[in-house]
């Protein structure tokens, strides 16, 4: 098990693909040997971003997306065929980057976290940990993000305190378990395929 504490001052900023806002990039991976780290070389990415006005989402062919509101409430994603309800914070929705989506804000601005991965390259999961308890973790990369104040977790017999908006990056070569001790955390899990 390898753990790395990622600090907010080390996060980078990048524009949304459609230029409509700014991501705070927390962690990610690109194809090895890619001359440029861009949307074409992206393997996976975990980022936060404010949504302050209704508008269209970026078109991201070949990308699977998971999203969760971590501040504010009342977000709805509308596509021509369905609606994704994120009115309550810490609700995860899954959609494809090809889907035409426009946001509706029913109660003002929100902040969301996004976990994105190139389809066929990685399996992804995004869950909120709000109640103390244990959950299994598979081999892969896991990000524990303190989205709502400080939190404490226990991982493989070790205790970790994670300050607000910090992220504990956990790289596992074999299965383990994680327990939320206190606070609220967002758990993003990435398993590369093959």
UniProtKB/TrEMBL annotation:
Domain of life: Bacteria
Signal peptide: none
SUPFAM superfamilies per record: RmlC-like cupins (SSF51182)
PANTHER family per the UniProt record, alphabetical: PROTEIN VES
Name of this chain's protein: HutD protein
Species assigned in the record: Bradyrhizobium huanghuaihaiense
């Amino acid at each position: 098990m390898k753990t790395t504490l990622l600090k907010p001052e080390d996060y980078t900023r990048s524009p949304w693909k459609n230029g409509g806002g700014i991501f705070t990039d927390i962690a990610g991976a690109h194809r090895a040997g890619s001359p440029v780290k861009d949307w074409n070389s992206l393997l996976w990415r975990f980022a936060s971003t404010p949504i302050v006005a209704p508008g269209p989402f970026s078109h991201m062919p070949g990308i699977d997306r998971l999203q969760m509101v971590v501040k504010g409430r009342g977000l709805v994603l509308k596509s021509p065929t369905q609606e994704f309800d994120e009115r309550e914070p810490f609700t995860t929705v899954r959609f494809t980057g090809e889907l035409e989506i426009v946001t509706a804000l029913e109660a003002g601005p929100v902040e969301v976290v996004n976990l994105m991965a190139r389809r066929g390259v990685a399996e992804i999961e995004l869950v909120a940990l709000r109640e103390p308890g244990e959950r299994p973790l598979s081999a892969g990369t896991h990000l524990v993000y303190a989205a709502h104040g400080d939190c404490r977790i226990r991982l493989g017999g070790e205790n970790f305190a994670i300050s607000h908006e910090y992220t504990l990056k956990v790289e596992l070569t074999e299965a383990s378990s994680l327990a939320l001790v206190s606070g609220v955390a967002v758990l993003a899990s990435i398993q590369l395929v093959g």
